[in-house]
Structure formats: structure tokens, C-alpha cells
Amino acid sequence: MSDEEMEFSDDDYDDYYGGEYDGDVDHVDPQKNDPEYFHVACLTDTEVERLLNESVEQLSNSIQVTPSLAKLLLHMYNWNQIEIVAGYRQDCHKMLTSVHIKPATPPQQMTNNQQGESEATCPVCLAPMSPDYASHLTCGHTFCKDCWSMHFEVQIKQGMSTGIECMGNSCQVLAPEDFVVPLLKRPRLKEKYQQYAFSDYVRSHPQLRFCPGPNCNIVIQAKECRAKRVTCTACKSQFCYKCGGDYHAPTDCETIRCWLTKCADDSETANYISAHTKDVNIDSFQAVGPCKTVGEYEEIAYCPKCHICIEKNGGCNHMQCFNCKHDFCWMCLGCWKTHGSEYYECSRYKENPNIAHESAHAQAREALKKYLHYYERWENHSKSLKLEEETLAKIRERIQNKVMAGTGTWIDWQYLLDAAALLARCRYTLQNTYPFAYYLESGPRKDLFEYQQAQLEAEIENLSWKIERAEMTDRGDLENQMDIVEKRRTTLLTDFLQV
Amino acid sequence: MSTPARRRLMRDFKRLQQDPPAGVSAAPTENNIMIWNAVIFGPHDTPFEDGTFKLTLEFTEEYPNKPPTVKFVSKMFHPNVYADGGICLDILQNRWSPTYDVAAILTSIQSLLDEPNPNSPANSLAAQLYQENRREYEKRVAAIVEQSWLNFQVSATID
């Protein structure tokens, strides 16, 4: 129960005349009542910084490390303070080596760097360096400060920040913020470093998400990562909290991704050709289909692990994501490790001897029929949504005319706009039921789903029809219809939205 | 003009001359210190023995913070070398360290010749033959070793 409700229940008079709550409606927990309920907070970057700094301060006080080190630890452990404190108290050396803050093997004095001797050589620029102009991380690899600055500059220009490593040969020790920042010469570079580091921290934080809206700097905070609708308070964009894409209930993130890829790529074109022409092998079409491309750019793909956009700028097909260091194959986007010694297995034509060509032909035809059935409906509702936006403009015009003609006041007609908003919301859900049904296996569950889907569809069309022809006298009827549609939608989501 | 990259390349060159590593040699081109020519001799007791393979190294002003682009000029038949001479070697990409110099790059490539990494195939035929038909693989390598002398003589006379 919220504080507000507590306040009201203390005073019956206020409760009754308070006006905010309707006396005969039970106020139940919205979490139970609304399957789409999701509590989030929209934070600005200063608010996020304050939130992160609080965690950093707490950790740095509880295990007595510098704030910079605490920040790096939190980042590497996805901001799980409890785990860090427990691990640190148990074996702080093991914890620090596991996140590359300390080297796995104890530092060795480098042969060419005798302490106290002024003629040591920096292994990077090969110039002599005085001991007071040299520095090193916990691994002991010593370089002159100019070379460190240059190294950081190049790394930051490539978008690196929290992941900048020591320059030593195959040394993976990370450079913490308080080591990097004082060595940066230009203020612009410091700014960039802080900005990239901030993005890294938000990305590693399990409760934070950047708003995917264009040029929007809002960070969304939610207690759990669920595939629910979030509306940004600043840019008003709506999206799924989990995957950051367009909201897609009742379909889950993985399924909608498959569906959208399927709609965008050429696999169904190949099926079409196969089903409608003779003597064509489907597999040969799929092999040349742009399975990895994004849009028109042949040389761009998403990292299969962290989904960051990657451009292929070299000849090698063994890709390593610069962001998450995931190794994958450019050809099939599969994990590189699974390739083993099988080279280019992914692009090689695989023959299936069990399926005779005749049946493949029939299968392609059947698969295409099924896909088209769902796709046409999906596409149709998408178009309807656009058309109903135009209807909204017409409704406004109609309200204007009615008011001018003296049929009711402007306030009397507001219900029609509410109805249009509800219609859009319901149709949006309906559109997203099609990918769900496409991937749903046959059985009683699918039967139930399709029944509920049909019910929802029928009521939505009813509502749409009524909105277009609404008169003042119909208001009760229309509001009744709105209630029915919303109930159908909620029922469907309650039964099938599993996020 | 003296930049950190150019100064470092001069020092690399000095080191190569004072302390030349076995089986490799390199020098900057006459009018551009950012482009080097190099030769790798095929290691002894390998199918590449007696080969003299020419390479080019192209450096940027970000060297040694970024690796140079290294390519074989001589024809090569190797699981990790592309048809255009490009090399798939971790230290030339994501495992690069600014502590590597020209000598370290060339000796790494030299040892790559006899220790190919079939998990990063750049030439799938070479990778396949290396694993499944070593005799045929060695025959193909012997052919490019012979070719390397021809190209070397031709370019030597032109020079």
C-alpha cells in the first residue's frame, strides 16, 4: 500500500470526499491487476551519477579501497556489492586478479628497468626515461608517461574506457580511472573518457538502461529486467525494457527478434521462388541470402553476444567484438570456439539426403503459406494503426464541428479521444500476437491462444467501427465496448505474457 | 618532420642493424620511413626452407600504439595468409602490444610459417590440405618456395 493510500484510510472524510478515488472501485495492487504493470524511474545523467557514486562510496568504505578501484570492481561485478564484499573478505588477491586489477603472477622487475638507475629505457618509445617520469600499474610494466598518454589517447579514440589494458606484451591488467585521467593531456579527451566510462557503467548495471530514443540522455531504472513497456518521460518513446526494441507483448524478445529478422531477410523470397518455380533448390538460395547483413551494408553486423554494431574492416573472418571481446565467425555469426578445426563449415552447402527433392518442394510451399498467413495479418494491423492515426485527426475535426454546431461542449467529446488511444493500444497488442502465434507449437495452448486472439480481434474491429460513427447518444455503448476490448486484451496478456 | 612514430621507427631500424634477428631482414623504403620492405627466410627443417619471402609493412602515425599493416608481396600458400597477402595473426590485430617492434613482428610471422593456426583459416584450401593431406600441402609450399626465388631475382634486377 502506498503512503498516499495510508493517509486516506486514516481519515474517512478525506477518503470519501477526496475525489481522487472512486468509492465503489476496489483499489488492488496494480501489479496483480495489470499484466503490463512495470514500475520504472527515468533518471537524468546527474541522478545516475549520484546513484553510482553512492554505491562506489559505500564499497570503498566497506572494504577500504580507493574509489577508483571500487568503481572498477563494481563495473566488473555488475554492481553486485554483496558478492564483492564477500569475495574480497574471503580472498582479496583472487578477486583482484580475476577482474584483471592485479596480475595473475606477481610482478617481476623488468630487466631493463633497474630502480635508481637513470638510464632505463622505455620499452615503447625506446628512449631513455628518468624514474620520476615513468609509471606502472600493479603488474610492474614500466613505461614513460608520454607513452602512457599516447596509448590512452589511441584507446579512447577507439571508444575504449574502462577496458583499457596495460601496454605490456600480453598483459591484461586494467588501468583504473585515477591512473588514466591524470595522464590525459587534453581536456576534451578527459571528457570523452568520462563519457565512455559512464556508458560502460550504465551498461554493466543490471538495474539501468539507456533510453533508446534518438538523442535522448535519459537512463531508465527498474528493479528487475523484464520485457515490459517503458515510456520515457523526456522523449516519450516507448520500448521494451529488456531488449530495447519496440514493445512486443505478448511475444517475447527472442521470438520477436526471429520474426523481424525473418520479415526483413530474403529467406521467404527463397521459399517463394522454390514454391513457385521448378527445379530450384532452396538451400542454394539461403546460402546466398544476406543472413548477416544489416540493411544495405554488407560489412556491418551485430555482435551476437552484446549486440553492438560491428563493421568488418579487415579480411579475417574470425571477428572479435571490440566491446565485449566475444570471438565469433563473420560468416555464420556463431561462436568461434564451436568452429574447432572445421573451417567454413558455416558457409559450406550441406545436403540433406533424407528429404527427396519432391517433398522439399511441397514443404517450401507449405512453409511459405504458413508464413504469409501470419505476415499478412501482422502487416495489415500495422497499416491499420497508421490509418487510425489519420482517423484521430478526423475525430478532432469532427469534435470541432460538433462543438461549433452546438452539439455538446468540447469536454463532452473528450471520451472519443480516450477511445481512440485505447484502440491504438489494443491494436498494437493484437499486431504483436501474430509473431507469437507463428512460433507457437500446435496443441491446446495454441487453440486457447487463437481463440482469445480471435475474440480480441472481433472486439477491436467493433470498437473501431463504433469510434468512426460515434454520436453523443452512443457514449454509454462506446464506453462499454472500450471496457470489453481492454478486458479481452488484459485476459490474453494475463494468460500468455510470460516475462 | 619528427613525430613519436617516426622516432620510434628510426630506433627500430637502428636496433635491427645493431642486433639483427636470425632469418629476417627489413629496412624503410628510401623516401618514406612509414613504409618498409622486409624479407623473411623460410625456417630450416620446414617445407618453407630456402624460401625468400618479401613483405611490406605500412605504419601509421599511431605506431607503436597501433600495429602496422603487414602483407606478403611474394606469393604465399599458408593457412593463415589471404590471397592478397594479408596475414591473420593475433598480434597484428587484437593482441597487439606497443612493446612489439619490427623485429618482433617479423620473427612472429616467421614462426607462424611452420606453426599455422588452422582455427583461423584465411586460405581454406591450405588449411584443409595442412590437416588432411600433408604431402600435397608440402608440394604446394615447395612450389611457392621456388617461385619466391624467381620473383626475387626479377625484382633484384629491376632494382
TrEMBL record, chain A:
RING-type domain residues: 118-350, 122-166
Cited InterPro entries: Ariadne (IPR045840), BRcat_RBR_TRIAD1 (IPR047555), E3_UB_ligase_RBR (IPR031127), IBR_dom (IPR002867), Rcat_RBR_TRIAD1 (IPR047556), TRIAD_supradom (IPR044066), Znf-RING_euk (IPR027370), Znf_RING (IPR001841)
Reactions listed under catalytic activity: [E2 ubiquitin-conjugating enzyme]-S-ubiquitinyl-L-cysteine + [acceptor protein]-L-lysine = [E2 ubiquitin-conjugating enzyme]-L-cysteine + [acceptor protein]-N(6)-ubiquitinyl-L-lysine
Entry similarity comment: Belongs to the RBR family. Ariadne subfamily.
Region (Disordered): 1-30
Compositionally biased intervals (Acidic residues): 1-23
Protein name as annotated: RBR-type E3 ubiquitin transferase
Classification via PROSITE patterns: TRIAD (PS51873), ZF_RING_1 (PS00518), ZF_RING_2 (PS50089)
EC number: 2.3.2.31
Species for this entry: Homarus americanus
Superkingdom of this protein's organism: Eukaryota
Gene transcribed to yield this protein: ari-2-L
GO-annotated biological processes: protein ubiquitination
Pfam families recorded: Ariadne (PF19422), IBR (PF01485), IBR_1 (PF22191), UBA_ARIH2_N (PF26000), zf-RING_UBOX (PF13445)
GO molecular function: ubiquitin protein ligase activity; zinc ion binding
Enzyme kind, highest EC tier: transferase
PANTHER family: RBR FAMILY RING FINGER AND IBR DOMAIN-CONTAINING (PTHR11685)
Keywords in alphabetical order: Metal-binding, Repeat, Transferase, Ubl conjugation pathway, Zinc, Zinc-finger
TrEMBL record, chain B:
Residues of the UBC core domain: 4-150
CDD domains assigned: UBCc_UBE2A_2B
Keywords recorded for this protein, A-Z: ATP-binding, Nucleotide-binding, Transferase, Ubl conjugation pathway
InterPro entries from the UniProt entry: Ub_conjugating_enzyme, UBC, UBQ-conjugating_AS, UBQ-conjugating_enzyme/RWD
Biological process according to GO: DNA repair
Catalytic residues, chain numbering: 88 (glycyl thioester intermediate)
Keyword Heme set for record: no
Similarity field: Belongs to the ubiquitin-conjugating enzyme family.
Name of this chain's protein: E2 ubiquitin-conjugating enzyme
Organism: Homarus americanus
